[in-house]
Amino acid sequence: MGAMLGMGAAFMPLQFCAAPKKKEGDLDQPVKSTLSAFGIQLYSVKEDMAVDAQATMRSLAGFGYQQFEGFDGGKGILWGMQPAEFKSLLSEIGTTMVASHANVFENLEAQAAQAAEVGMKYLICPWIGPQKSLDDYKKKANEFNQIGEKLKSFGLRFAYHNHDYTFVNQEGSIPQDILMDNTDPELVDFEMDIYWVHVANAKPAEYLAKYPGRFRLCHLKDAESGTGDPHQRGVLLGAGEIPYADLIKQSKAIGMEYFIVEQERFPSGTPMEAAETNAKYLSALQY
Which residues form the signal peptide (predicted)? Predict the structure, then answer.
């Protein structure tokens, strides 16, 4: 009897054995991702860094930041520490020092040697100021190429960090285009400060697509809606109008490697509280 039942099942019409059809609306949802690592520009907590750099960096690591981007707060790019001491701290708290903003026009070799010794990948020019003419921007682009060539010998990359002024029309052109078009991709990368592009009424997504692979780092900070003073529109991540989930997904697909929080305006709370809130936001953000 059991054998007959088995044979009957074997010859049962296929429609009775087939898996049930999916109903409309049951389509597979795309799998979303979260950032496996993100960093913070230490300028965001500059007052705390000035008081106790090591304690501040330990606290930031506790918030979930795995990467740091530094700046020269008056004690050099290693905050008065020797390279061995600095490396030991990073190892202890489980972080890496991806880059530092620096005055790349002075003492470049000495800074490059320190950066290379602690494992940085970049020295970044954070500011050149509005230039008087497009020719002046071309001259800066040529300087960038020269700096990139020098840093290459130390195993480092050079990058330029934008503000809003390079996205404001000048003599019928966008100065940022001049910098992009006159620098050698083998020597010069760029760090997009997404906030400054946004408040300059440019489109971060469109500009990233225009120059795929040139922006390897970015600054994440949000902007409240409106057209007021661009220096006064900064808010915590997720509290503004910049679509970071979409931008992160797009930029990762075309070469962005480092996502670095920078907070310069604090509508409420302390800089360290803002750093913790921003870390929680990025840890949970799906794209």
Answer: none
Long-range CB pairs of 12-19 (<8 Å, 24+ gap) are none
- The rounded distance, in Å, linking the Cα atoms of 111 and 90 is 18
Nearest Cα neighbor of 148 from 137, 158, 140, 156 is 158
Q: What sign has the CA pseudo-torsion 14, 15, 16, 18?
A: positive
40 vs 17: which has the higher pLDDT: 40
Res. 30 pLDDT band, cuts 50 70 90: confident
Contacts of 86 (CB under 8 A, 6+ apart): 78, 79, 97, 118
User: Angle at Cα 93 formed by Cα 88 and Cα 99, nearest 5°?
Assistant: 75
Domain assignments of the chain as residue spans, ordered by start: 34-284
* Cα distance from N-terminal residue to C-terminal residue, the chain: 57
Give tens-digit pLDDT for 231-274: 999 999 999 999 999 999 999 999 999 999 999 999 989 999 99
Contact 188, 144 (CB under 8 A): yes
pLDDT tens, residue by residue, 70-90: 999 999 999 999 999 999 999
Helix (H/G/I), strand (E/B), else coil: 270: coil
Query: How many helices (DSSP H) and strands (DSSP E) are in the chain?
Result: 12, 10
Considering the segment(s) 34-284 as one domain, its CATH architecture is Alpha-Beta Barrel (3.20)
- Does residue 5 have a pLDDT over 50? no
C-alpha dist (Å) from residue 10 to 3, 6, 16, 18: 11, 6, 11, 13
Contact 222, 242 (CB under 8 A): yes
